[in-house]
Amino acid sequence: MAGDETASGFARRDFLAASLAMSSAPALVSVASGPAVAQAAVAAEPPAPPPPSAAAARKAVESVKDAVLRISREVWATPELSLKEEKSSEIHLRELRAAGFRIVSTGTSGTPTAFVAEWAQGTGGAKIGFLPEYDALPGLGNAAEPRQIPGPTGAAVGHGCGHNLLGAGCTGAAFALKTMMTDAGTPGTIRVYGCAAEETEGVKVYMARDGLFGDLDACLAWHPTPVTGTGLLRTAAADMFRVRFTGRSAHAGVAPWEGRSALKGAELFAIGVNFMREHIQPTARLHYVFTAAGVAPNVVPDHAEVWMTIRDSDRQRVVAMTAWVRRIAEGAALMTETKAEFDLTFGIHDLLPNAPLASHIHRHLTAVGMTWTDQEQSFARACQKEMGLPEAGMATSILPLLPEKTTGGGTDVGDVSYNTPTGLFGWATMPLGVGLHTWPVTACGGMSIGDKGSLDSARVMAGVGFDLMTDAALRKAVRADFDHRVDGRTYVSPIPKERLRPDGIPAHLLLRDGTGEVVDQLYRPS
Ligand SMILES: [Zn+2]
Questions:
Q1: What's the CA-to-centroid distance between 469 and ligand 1, angstroms?
Q2: Superfamily of domain 2-32+47-233+350-487
Q3: Which are the contacts of 340, defined by CB distance < 8 A and separation ≥ 6?
Q4: Separation of 57 CA from ligand 1 center, angstroms?
Q5: pLDDT 10s digit of each residue in the chain, 526 long?
Q6: Closest C-alpha among 8, 225, 254, 213 to residue 128
Q7: CA 161 to ligand 1 centroid distance, Å
Q8: Per-domain residue ranges for the chain?
Q9: Ligand 1 centroid – CA 346 distance (Å)
Q10: What's this model's pTM, rounded to 2 decimal places?
């Protein structure tokens, strides 16, 4: 269903896909005509000295460089859609085993291509998590060339969201952090969550339901973007569901009175939703498509289906709107003497930022810095020319810390952020003005621009991870900010209890153990 999911627009819920992409628009303007990005950002702070761990992180990433680039390049060359990431997850697992990590579970939280791996030393240390993703997108296979041309496996599937880089950076950061902790004799636990299916029904929400993030001190991740930065960005909470109307078919000309139209139920449902709009918060979004609406006008349709997404800036508002919309469906069924079935398939929390973590990540972003060769800038400008964009090349400076702001997009990292302090950032792996889910993202992800994203993001996360492992005051500040934002709310999973796993898992993976069930060694933190 990945193609449908993508068509829904819901798939672009990557944490910074909407938010930092928004920031890239002013960044592009600033290149072209002057207004500074800083307009949209907090006033620049005086430059802080690079954190002492930045140099060790650079050295540690250098020592695991080959493994990081193997993951990045092999996953790029083996693009697989959500829930079908058999080879991609195995590439991560192979490298994790080789690096001395213990594979805690595969088939995690009911998802065959998800996993958890761990490395620990000593006692009483902190626990830090990383969130690699590795799914690709339909229609975005492309060669590592600055023009739209099929890639090594054609054009059907490709890494147009850069998850080959995202995954390599996160797993690579875990390797580098292990090296740093081994060298320094630092006690602690590094946990790597193999986050399958980010583009559709992200497994992080299922993992959060299983309580897999609850014992962490913090979780770190990044996302490829056109610009490099971090801040207090929030993303929207969402519910995704299908409303199915069932009526009775009849000859529409001879005996229409014998029929009850499921389509009319669906139409009145949509009218009800649209009348509701006046009375919801301006931050809310309601979007829907008709996925079944009858087959011929001379047959009264006995089946109709509406697929809908509801979003708002926080989870409570989404839950309230979903309850209202459910009653609208019941009302539409009453009016048309049809039946309405409400099927909530997936939901996500809004993303809670973390101020101390964001400013600490910002110090590491600045310490790592961005440099591009002339060849890389030419490659970027050639992509922009092909896309009809201003030929501004790659971003060259780190954005100032972004202020608190909610975007309309969403991410399954939101559910992680309600369970543990979560730090995120964007690193430039595509030319300015290029959006995610486009062919230049795939192209840049298969050459040196992408390699730099994998390695540089790993440097940032290894450095931040080491500071979290070794600095109790930083951990305390991060936890206090988290507690303040959660404000006593208990995490309630958006996914209905009866839903065991995402839809769309290929049958051969479900049947792998011969019982029809996923081989699921459910992991519970000790
Ligand atoms: Zn993504």
A1: 27
A2: Zn peptidases (3.40.630.10)
A3: 243, 244, 245, 265, 269, 329, 330, 332, 333
A4: 25
A5: 233 333 333 333 344 444 554 443 333 323 333 333 333 444 455 667 889 999 999 999 999 999 999 999 999 999 999 999 999 999 999 999 999 999 999 999 999 999 999 999 999 899 999 999 999 999 999 999 999 999 999 999 999 999 999 999 999 999 999 999 999 999 999 999 999 999 888 999 999 999 999 999 999 999 999 999 999 999 999 999 999 999 999 999 999 999 999 999 999 999 999 999 999 999 999 999 999 999 999 999 999 999 999 999 999 999 999 999 999 999 999 999 999 999 999 999 999 999 999 999 999 999 999 999 999 999 999 999 999 999 999 999 999 999 998 888 889 999 999 999 999 999 999 999 999 999 999 999 999 999 999 999 999 999 999 999 999 999 999 999 999 999 999 999 999 998 988 988 888 888 665 445 554 444 444 3
A6: 213
A7: 5
A8: 2-32+47-233+350-487, 237-348
A9: 17
A10: 0.89
Alpha-helical segments (H) within 235-314: 262-276
Residue type, 62: E
Ligand 1 center–CA 66 separation, angstroms:
24
Residues in contact with 316: Cβ distance below 8 Å, sequence separation at least 6, in sequence order: none
Say how many Å lie between the CA of residue 204 and the centre of ligand 1. Answer: 13
Ligand 1 centroid, distance to 144 Cα (angstroms) = 19
Please tell me the distance between residue 255's alpha carbon and the centre of ligand 1 in angstroms: 52
Among 186, 215, 177, which residue's Cα sits nearest to residue 122? 186
- What's the CA gap between 170 and 161, in Å, rounded? 15
Q: Residues with beta carbon < 5 A to ion ligand 1?
A: 14, 161
Enumerate residues 6+ apart whose C-beta is below 8 A from 16.
Answer: 223, 225, 233, 424, 425, 426
How far does residue 14's CA lie from ligand 1's centre (Å)? 5
Cα(134) to centroid(ligand 1), Å: 9
Q: How far is the CA of 225 from the centre of ligand 1 (A)?
A: 9
Cα of 518 from ligand 1 centre, angstroms = 25
CA of 162 to the centre of ligand 1 (A): 6
String of DSSP letters for 47-97: PPPPPTHHHHHHHHHHHTHHHHHHHHHHHHHS--BTT--HHHHHHHHHHHH
**CA-wise closest residue to 173 among 132, 133, 207:** 132
CATH architecture of 237-348: 2-Layer Sandwich (3.30)
Structure tokens at 439: 């062919």
